[in-house]
Design a protein that fits this description.
Blueprint (H helix, E strand, L loop, with lengths): L6 E6 L23 H20 L3 E6 L1 E3 L8 H11 L4 E7 L3 E2 L1 E3 H14 L5 E4 L5 E2 H12 L4 E5 L9 E2 L4 H7 L7 H15 L3
Parallel strand pairs: 1-2, 2-7, 3-6, 4-9, 5-10
Antiparallel strand pairs: 5-8
Amino acid sequence: NRKIDLLLFSSTAYVYGEPLYLPVVENHQQTYPNSPYGISKSACESYCNYYREKCGVPATIMRFFNIYGPNQPLGLVVPDILDKIMKSEDGKVKLRGTDADSRDFLYVDDLANAISKIVQKRITGETINLGGKGNVKIIDLAKKIAQIVGKDITFEVKKQSETSKISNLHADISKAEKLLDWSPKTSLEEGLKKVVESYKAKHKI
């Protein structure tokens, strides 16, 4: 058997399901994940905990919140909204969810920095939230992206949220800040500008 120095598992905020309170801390009284994705990650966390306790595997669980950055594929919040805005011909864009839905957003460079610190400090046996600072409404995120690209867009949202969709989800990252001596450095404005630049370069706009 090979000796494992450190096993890092990339989990997700969606293991929390619909939170009982915000921001969400790591020892949140867990509700049931309400998506197949959240359920699968929760199961993997259980395996990590099992092998750590029974076999001594030095595992650390990282719960990612909304990570964004250049060259993300469609199907995620930021690239989806940006793509819809850029391709809109009538100045209208439909958003998923309601105008009350919110998330926090962590730029990929800040995430990489946090992971690097976990490795450097050999943090083991922990579950750590990795998210951005501040709670951002999706409608406000969309407006900010439209402003950066210089398009006048009217956003259409539903009045009622889907039952399987989490409305509001953002992290308490105080544990990560203390344990890793880390905090997000990239502002949402700065990060979104980099995303827009990469989109324009890719599509030769």
